[in-house]
Every structure is written in C-alpha cells, then in structure tokens.
Specification:
Layout (H helix, E strand, L loop, with lengths): L1 E5 L7 E6 L2 E6 H4 L5 H6 L4 E5 L4 E3 L6 H10 L8 H13 L3 H19 L7 E2 L2 H10 L4 E6 L7 E2 L3 H18 L5 E5 L7 E7 L2 E7 L1 E5 L4 E5 L3 H12 L9 H16 L4 H18 L1
Parallel strand pairs: 2-5, 6-9, 7-9, 8-13
Antiparallel strand pairs: 1-4, 2-3, 4-5, 7-10, 10-11, 12-13
Helix pairs in contact: 4-5, 8-9
Amino acid sequence: MSDKTVIKGNPSEYVKLNVGGCLYYTTIGTLTKHDTMLRAMFSGRMEVLTDSDGWILIDRSGKHFGTILNFLRDGTVTLPETSKELAELLAEAKYYCIAELSEPCNQALQKRKEREAEPICKVPLITSQKEEEMLISSTTKPAIKLLINRHNNKYSYTSTSDDNLLKNIELFDKLSLWYSKRVLFIKDVISTSEICCWVFYGHGKKMSEVCCTSIVYATDKKHTKVECPEARIFEETLNILLYESRSPPDQELMQAMARGAVSVMSSYTSDEEEERSVERMRTNKNSQT
C-alpha cells in the first residue's frame, strides 16, 4: 500500500528514500539545498508517495542517486569513467532538473566522443625537406622515417622486389601502431634519392639508416633488388627508443643491445646471400662434371 503525502519539515530532519529499490537516508536540508525537482518535492509544493513503513518512493533508477545526493551536499562530484555511466548520470540529472550537474556531464561526454573519434595513430606524409626538418626538430620523441618510392628505378626489379617493398610498408605500419605514443613515424613518398630506406632520428639528429635496395648483375643487364631486413629494422627501432629520455642513452646499454642484435643477425640470411650460395653450388657442380 502507498499513500500520497506532503513532506515539509525542519532542514535537519531526516527522511527515508526508496529510489527504484535502493534505500537512502538523508536530510530535508540536503534535498532542498539547490533549486531542483527535489526541492519542490520536499518543501511541501508537491505530493510524494510513501509506503506503510514511511519510505518515500521515487520511481527512478537508484544506481546514481548517491552521486546526486553527494552533488547536492558538496556542489561537485567525480564523474564516472565510462561513457555509458556518464549518459546514465546525465539522464538522472536532467530528470531532477539539476542543471549544474547536467552541464559537466554533457561536456565530459562530448570530450569522450571527440577522443574516441580521434585516430590512434597519425603518420604525416612529408611534402618537402623543410617540412621534414621542422617535424623532427620540433618533436620530443625519437623519429623513424620510411622513404618509399617505387618509381625511382633505372633498372628492372628482381622477382622478389615487389613483395619486399610491400613487406617494408607493412612492417612500417605495424611499428607505427605499436609505438605510436613513443615514436614519431614519418612517411616520405616524394624523395628521389632512394627507393626504400629507413632513417632513425634521436634528439633531432639522424642516428642510423637501413637501406633496403642494392644492384645485382645478371648476364644481360643490371637489376634493382629490394630486401626487407626485419631483424635489422627491429634492432634500430629498439635502439631509437633509448632516445626517449632527453639525456643521451647509456653506452653500456647500447653495447649490450648491439651484442644481442649480432646474435639475432647471425641467424638471419638475406635473399642475396641465399642467391650467392645457390650460385656457388651450381659452379661446383659444373666444375665436377
């Protein structure tokens, strides 16, 4: 059984609230502190429902009513972390006509939407040498540039070169996703100096580079060969992370990383080395016959 009644009393008087099955105990002074629907309900201007045990019934979700009460007491609250809970709190603030709480909830939701729409990883495409220098000198991060220009080629490509060009681009994309918060990644598609080359910068200066092209000689003409030395590129990427600090990297640490890279590289055989090995085998076989 429930009855309608009018609540009006001393601000220090406590009342019992049942909000959607969640029970709260607070003073009339808290409920009437701001110009809201709750002030109208508990200052005698509106009738409220009560049950047989004296609980005042409010047909709303009680999940965020504790936050509503804390805002009425203090004038400020810590907003929820998730967009879903922010939207729920906003709905309750609007229902109780608490404009001072609705506005910060709206602003927080808008900021979250903008952040969610913002790309995780941004890779600038440079259009000039001056632009490249400005980007590298102005960033506080280490930088990695991939110069890729398939059209800069005097000779025909070897059979595996097209695949290896794509592998370099795919590796660059993966690294830029993994380390986007720690490293500035730049792509150069207009330079004519190289076909495929990685350049690594620390503290605004060029530290190393990995050139992925070479010229191989066939019986009739020269060919341009493109490789994707993943182990070497990973090594230089890890080395460049040492330049995140504004102080120079520890030399002992650099040497230790270099020794580790040597052991990795010793097990790595390039396409060119494989071709030379096959050619030696053919030569030996011909000489035996």
